[in-house]
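Data deposition worksheet. Section B asks for the primary sequence of the deposited chain exactly as it was used as input, without tags or linkers unless they were present during the calculation. Section C holds the resulting structure in token form. Section D is free text for depositor observations; keep each observation to a single sentence. Incomplete worksheets are returned to the depositor.
Section A, Depositor: J.P.
Section B:
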Amino acid sequence: MTRAFFVIGPAGSGKSRVAKELAKRVGGLYLDKDVVCNGFTGMLLESRGYDASERDGNDYYRDDLMPMEYRTLLGIGADNLALGTPVIFDAPFGAYFADDAFVENVRAEFSWPEDAEPVVVHVKVDGETVRTRLIARGLSRDAWKLEHWDEFWAKASGATCAWVGAKHVTVDNNADTESGESVADEVLAQLG
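Section C:
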């Protein structure tokens, strides 16, 4: 069995720390959507006259670029699953939460091996912790979130992942630790 971990949660939840620690623990391929796609996405946004970090509220990004980012990420992941390598997807995936067949469709479209097991890791954190982390990291892509905090947090905290066909694990990541080690241990313990 080869696992595909979808590490999900709002910006500032600590997804990346948890995902990186999971990758270390299972010897898996760590795929961060921002690292894989941001350079190309930024150039494409600028070619249309937008700021390179403009994502929230940008129809061109939402309708054209974001689907391409996820297809790229999922394609790379599928190639590695076919090689027997566990994959850890570090991306919000929020736009796809309402599609209950999302994982099943990804499995079929990208020809996952039969023994590939999808695991959704819900990284939970409270709003004040998220806000503090977003301010501390100081990324331009977070400016809209902070300027429209109530709108952002209402949407982010109310998002429910409806995916079927996967194991779901929920972990609390409110502790401000240097690594996601204890949370990664909790994920693996829940999976048995």
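Section D:
Residues 33 and 91 are 5 Å apart (CA to CA).
The mean pLDDT is 90.
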